[in-house]
Amino acid sequence: MGNINFDFTGKSVIVTGAARGIGQALARHFANANATVFMVDFDKDELDKAAREVGAIGIPADVSSTGDVERVVSTVIAETGRVDVLVNNAGILRDKVLWKLTDDDWDQVLNVHAGGTFRFTRACVPHFRKQEFGRVVNITSYTGLHGNRGQANYATAKAGIIGFTKTAAKELAAFGVTVNAISPNAATRMTASIPEEKVAELTGPISRFADPSEMADAIAFLASEEAGYITGVVLPVDGGISI
């Protein structure tokens, strides 16, 4: 438990990709800070279990579907009358070297990562503008800037999220909305299969993957009122691998 505690009382928070990993840790962090938390994930069974554990509201949805995204935001507004914080965390992997990537491998990864980030942000903007307040935090990756073998689709999607973050930050600042991103390096289901001998080269000077809760601390800061003068930033929370 850290020494800094943010209070999100009265705030409505949407976290995508929330059934496990960083998303679940983040949802728990916001719930402990008194927010009304809406957890979104494609995996209904895992989502229902996680939402019960966290004390949040689970809404199964496909972030690549405009209809699903608009349904989620409408549900949040119907329940609380507002949406204050959006964290675009949903992601999938379809890793292959580029000459083996299929159109589906490409399209699915871009539609979930970049497409989901766009669709959810777009759906929240009218409510942010009405409130003259909003926080968007997107999850990008070191791979989006540096590439990685077997991840042309993932790297492209994450690079796109960086460009989207900076553009949305410029467009929405006049309405009291900040848009930032983090570049994480946390222990998740995606890192569990990495051989031990490879961990050092993937974790930077600190030589370990972060616990997902360490990502939640950084995201909560960017989502707080205290961070109101920070926008368009990509914050590396990566143990120094980007040095």
UniProtKB/TrEMBL annotation:
<dbReference type="InterPro" id="IPR057326">
    <property type="entry name" value="KR_dom"/>
</dbReference>
<protein>
    <recommendedName>
        <fullName>3-oxoacyl-[acyl-carrier-protein] reductase MabA</fullName>
    </recommendedName>
</protein>
<feature type="domain" description="Ketoreductase">
    <location>
        <begin position="11"/>
        <end position="185"/>
    </location>
</feature>
<dbReference type="InterPro" id="IPR020904">
    <property type="entry name" value="Sc_DH/Rdtase_CS"/>
</dbReference>
<dbReference type="InterPro" id="IPR036291">
    <property type="entry name" value="NAD(P)-bd_dom_sf"/>
</dbReference>
<dbReference type="GO" id="GO:0016491">
    <property type="term" value="F:oxidoreductase activity"/>
</dbReference>
<keyword id="KW-0560">Oxidoreductase</keyword>
<keyword id="KW-0134">Cell wall</keyword>
<keyword id="KW-0964">Secreted</keyword>
<dbReference type="InterPro" id="IPR050259">
    <property type="entry name" value="SDR"/>
</dbReference>
<comment type="similarity">
    <text>Belongs to the short-chain dehydrogenases/reductases (SDR) family.</text>
</comment>
<dbReference type="InterPro" id="IPR002347">
    <property type="entry name" value="SDR_fam"/>
</dbReference>
<dbReference type="Pfam" id="PF13561">
    <property type="entry name" value="adh_short_C2"/>
</dbReference>
